[in-house]
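seq as requested:
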Amino acid sequence: MKIGVLAVQGAFIEHIRKLQELKVETFEIRQKKDMDQSMDGLIIPGGESTAIGKLLRDLDLLEIIRNKIQTGLPVFGTCAGLILLAKRVEEGTVHLGVMDITAKRNAYGRQLGSFSIEENFEGIGSIPMTFIRAPYITEVGENVKILSRVNGHIVAAQEKNMLVTSFHPELTDSVKVHHYFIEELCNKK
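struct tokens:
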């Protein structure tokens, strides 16, 4: 098992640490040639979706990543990663546009609107969730499975080989969401 972590901006090192905790081989994706490596999955971390989207275009990574996802590469997007994967973005730019969801950027407000909560995640149970200037999902397509809601808002979903969370599981003590990604998406591809 080998997971690539997009490492152009955002909280990528925290994802790498979670994968290491699970004894999963990992590597950073910083440039086009890094995509030549064999991988069983890809993580797109939180950060700033506009900055990551611009860097994906500038580094000529956008089309390569989109094509790999569309041909079945399992992908896990957290926070900004959710926005990057969304086919529709309220008041924002569509970047990869591969998952049939509508994302609402900064839905929980500015940095002061950040919070942590314990909530249920289907297939896992109750887990800690950390939200930092987080988006949430306002609409899902018919093939999208909703995995978690907080205060009525969709904060985790899955469609085929794609998993997204509004929150940052990499910033908690739990490895359960990363384990779910590996077991439910990467091991079943």
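The chain has a mean pLDDT of 94.
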